[in-house]
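User: Teach me something about this protein's shape.
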Amino acid sequence: MSVRSRRSRLAFGIDVTPRDRQRRLEEICEGLDTTALGFNPQAERATPQEAEEFRQNPLFSRTYTAHLQEQPAGAGRFTEIHQGWTELGGITTLLPFRRRGIAAVVTAFLAQEAFRQGATRAFLLERRSSNQAAS
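Assistant: First, the predicted structure itself:
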């Protein structure tokens, strides 16, 4: 099994799974839903067609879903590494799982994985609309 396709067990019983091309469409939809619902609890669910399109996206291989007790709980990604730099982003936690350190664990995992893949520097920008508060 390749490093990219395995599930990584991290702190607090959180598992992080890459959205790799070997995943079933249902698993990719679950990851897309986790990201969308983490930022907007009223977001619509991803369709199998959207999941298939996402598989073709270059960002796909650097996108991860966090699970807590086998339930999707959060997500994140990092951008293509350019001259050693990468941006960590799209880090979110579903409402029922907030205030448990999931985003912190995902952020640490993303940085480690980016460095493993060749990044020498990583940065994170906070982007928040005026009506969106961290909770």
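Now, about its shape. The chain has a mean pLDDT of 85. The chain has one domain: 3-124. If you'd like, I can walk through any region in more detail.
User: That's plenty for now, thanks!
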